Amino acid sequence: MSESGVNKVVLAYSGGLDTSVILQWLRETYHCEIVTFTADIGQGEEVEPARAKAEAAGIQEIYIEDMREEFARDYVFPMFRANAIYEGEYLLGTSIARPLIAKRLIEICNETGADAISHGATGKGNDQVRFELGAYALKPDVKVIAPWREWDLLSRKKLMAYAEKHGIEVDFKKGKKSPYSMDANLLHISYEGDILEDPWAEPDESMWRWSVSPENAPNEASYVELTYVKGDITAIDGKAMSPASVMEYLNELGGANGIGRDDIVENRYVGMKSRGCYETPAGTIMLKAHRAMESLTLDREAAHLKDELMPRYAEMVYNGYWWSPERQMLQAAIDQTQAVVNGVVRLKLYKGNVIVAGRKSDSNSLFDESIATFEDDAGAYDQKDAEGFIKLNALRLRVAARHGNVK
User: pLDDT per residue over 167-181, tens digit each?
Assistant: First the structure.
């Protein structure tokens, strides 16, 4: 056992500047063995180069895994069954990736006999909370090492100097480097920092990576049909697709039609307000389509109760409580409602807009044309019944008015 009490640590490793410095810093500070873990969750960049960097650094145990399907199937899709959206705008793209990474860090920790995990999240953000709440929920006694809360390398200049001192190779991409801090996965790409730190400043058009501007989107609308089975999309335009394939397809289609951009000032769990911009083409389409499918198939009171619970559910995901008993309890209730959410939604995508063009469910539609019609309903609904219904519901209002209690 090393003097630090840490023998082996599993590091969430991207191969970039921060985690390359963290790798060396862990050795220098904790004198421990290091296992690296790199996950492909659809960030759109090659993850395999991280292997060569880890090998060059002398790492013996290297985990590089394609987790796109698990991410979409077990995290994103369950969240969209809840129609989750934080503070009315944020589709939780970064938030929902963290419990998956935390889970795999702990699994690797158990597989390799490590006694600690480490991550590169800063001490100002939400991700440190999400990673660590997940880790402690799954392995209560694990040690978590968060370098940004321990070291004095609190600027890019200091990180670069440390890298140079220790011979750490840093990749410099050709061309202009993005000034923004970005995070990407199958669900979204986020942008923070630089001019976005001024909430009055409009983002440069060149910032956006996944979508064209609505002004430059095609003048002809795109139509798409999404097939739902138990609340999840299983096919697009009649073609069966896996969850990750669904998201990849909708990201491309939505981005081409200028869909999914958002500019938000949000309330971080750690207490500060933060301005960020997001591109979530697939998620924007999925939320609209799912609500359309539920509008046809879900009972009124079940739908209304879901809407009441949704902000709490979204807050749990945002704050890092994916593995909490309360989120799991809500998920069970939500999933029970989805048994009837089956059918097809047709959408029209046009210049940043997602428009419902039709919805149908052969087996679970609660829409009864014979009742809803403005034409003769042949006695399906007795309109005289409404009088008693109204008077009963008005009784308390009439009593209050008689006593002068209504102003």
Answer: 887 764 444 556 788
Q: Is 232 a catalytic residue?
A: no
Q: How many angstroms separate the Cα of 348 from the Cα of each of 221, 225, 229, 324?
A: 6, 9, 21, 38
If one counts every other C-beta atom within 10 angstroms of the C-beta of residue 79, the result is 25
Known catalytic membership, residue 66: no
Which tokens in the block code for residue 190? 């986020």
Which residue in 127, 190, 211, 327 is the catalytic one? 127
How do 222-229 and 273-279 pair as beta strands? unpaired
Q: What pTM did the predictor assign? A: 0.93
Query: Hey, what CATH class is 181-360 in?
Result: alpha beta
DSSP codes joined into one string, 313-371:
HHHHHHHT-TTSHHHHHHHHHHHHHGGG--EEEEEEEETTEEEEEEEE-TTT----HHH
Q: Fold for domain 8-165?
A: Rossmann fold (3.40.50)
Among residues 14, 18, 104, 232, the one annotated as catalytic is 18
Q: Where are the domains of the chain?
A: 8-165, 181-360
